[in-house]
Design brief:
heterodimer; A: 213 residues; MetI-like fold; globular; B: 230 residues; alpha/beta; Rossmann fold; 8 helices
């Protein structure tokens, strides 16, 4: 049992970590572009903020339709693979990642963007400075997104299929064990999940303090 | 050689009020202009427009005869590199005071060692070498202000815009910064200083501009302006 718990835990962290990195690949550039434009931020930020709480089952359902054998992306044969969960979680956390990164980058643009400009920076040098100075804040955004991905059930269940040894993650394992009446294992997994979330929350506090320095 | 603001109007996004209304003024190299006026009169906004950080809503900013906001990106950077704006609340980067002073030189492609050496020499010149290796986050407000002024001086700007430059300084540092400003003007740089500090205006200005509610209420020699205000 212990080895299975460990395996599920490692898979959960790997899958959600990969999803967060994937979401960061597009989420941070999106947030940076929006932070540079008053017009874009007025139009787009309310949209991203509104969909932060997007129901996970809805994302799971849409992705299921797209990835199922009859769907437009069926040829990729990604359904019921860890890759499908990674893509689904990346989409799920994107609004959260964009909203929180935007706040950090908007502030950094105002302060460091202006400083870099007056010191004679090119556009690329401005971006470099803004990203460097925003790094602790962006890391906070990524950790928040990772926590959201780690704790979600809908996407992992619908496009991952909860296949033992392949796509089973902490949340889908908890759901399965509860449905089987195996509360002991479900509680152990639940405790691990909570422990991780608390650990991430504490690391957030430390990072925020670092950012304030 | 000058920066000429022609009929400048400025309104912040989502604001219905004009912050600046029809400002026309010319700043010249080698001259110290002091902008005074009550809070909210538009001093900082005027400084940021003249230092090319804000684009005016209406009007033009001409540098050496060229309309800045019609130039292409490369030309804008080239013009921006001739002037520096110093914020009222110093903004320093993570790293030491020396790194902060060397930073604009690094932006201009100086080799790291040369940039740091120049920074060190500047710190020595103003007798504050002890700041060199201090992390920026541990500097006092006055030390941070001195660092941000030296960072600007490092690139030998043709124009320097200073927003309340003495705000965080004790008496000793005030006199150091005041003499720095005079020396820069003597070397041919144009200085534009926004301040509430009338004694600073008395001690350094060649010309005083009184700003009220976004308009130039008076402009002239320091004695003339203060006489009119009194």
């Amino acid at each position: 049992m212990l080895s299975e718990v460990l395996e599920i835990t490692i898979r959960s962290i790997t899958v959600s970590g990969a999803a967060t990195l994937l979401a960061s690949l597009w989420g941070i550039p999106i947030a940076y572009s929006i932070s540079r434009s008053q017009r874009l931020s007025t139009i787009l930020m309310p949209v991203f903020e509104a969909i932060v709480g997007l129901p996970t089952v809805l994302v799971g359902l849409i992705l299921y339709i797209l990835l199922s054998s009859r769907g437009p992306l069926g040829v990729l044969k990604l359904l019921y693979t860890p890759y499908a969960i990674i893509i689904g979680q990346a989409i799920l956390v994107t609004p959260l990642l964009v909203s929180t990164s935007f706040r950090v980058l908007y502030h950094a643009q105002e302060v460091y963007g202006e400083l870099a400009l007056t010191l004679g920076a090119t556009d690329r040098q401005v971006m470099h400075l803004v990203l460097i100075e925003s790094f602790p804040g962006l890391l906070v955004s990524m950790i928040m997104s990772f926590s959201r991905a780690l704790g979600e059930l809908g996407v992992a269940l619908m496009v991952g299929g909860n296949i033992r040894g392949y796509t089973r993650v902490i949340t889908t394992a908890i759901a399965l064990e509860v449905s089987r009446g195996e509360f002991e294992l479900a509680l152990i997994l639940g405790a691990i999940l909570v422990a991780f979330l608390i650990a991430f929350s504490l690391s957030l506090r430390v990072l925020r303090r670092m950012q304030a320095i | 050689m000058s920066i000429k603001l022609e009929n400048i109007w400025f309104r912040y996004p989502r604001s219905e009020r004009w912050t600046l209304e029809g400002i026309s003024i010319t700043f010249r190299e080698g001259e110290i202009s002091v902008i005074i006026g009550p809070n909210g009169s538009g001093k900082t906004t005027l400084l940021k427009i003249a230092s090319l950080l804000y684009k005016p809503s209406k009007g033009s900013v001409k540098l050496w005869g060229r309309d800045f906001w019609t130039l292409d990106k490369a030309e804008r950077i080239s013009f921006r590199r001739r002037l520096v704006y110093i914020h009222e609340k110093p903004i320093l980067l993570k790293g030491t005071a020396l790194y902060n002073i060397a930073y604009p030189l690094l932006l201009r492609g100086f080799p790291r060692d040369d940039a740091l050496e120049l920074g060190r020499r500047l710190l020595e010149k103003f007798d504050i070498s002890s700041l060199a290796d201090k992390p920026a986050s541990t500097l006092s407000a006055g030390e941070a202000q001195l660092t941000s002024i030296l960072r600007a001086v490092a690139v030998n700007p043709r124009f320097l815009f200073l927003d309340e430059p003495l705000a965080h300084l004790d008496l000793k540092k005030r006199s150091l910064v005041t003499s720095m400003m005079k020396e820069l003007a003597k070397r041919g740089a144009g200085l534009v200083v926004a301040t509430h500090d009338y004694s600073l205006a008395y001690s350094i200005s060649d010309r005083v501009v009184l700003l009220e509610e976004g308009r130039i209420a008076a402009e002239g020699g320091v004695a003339e302006i203060f006489k009119r205000k009194a």
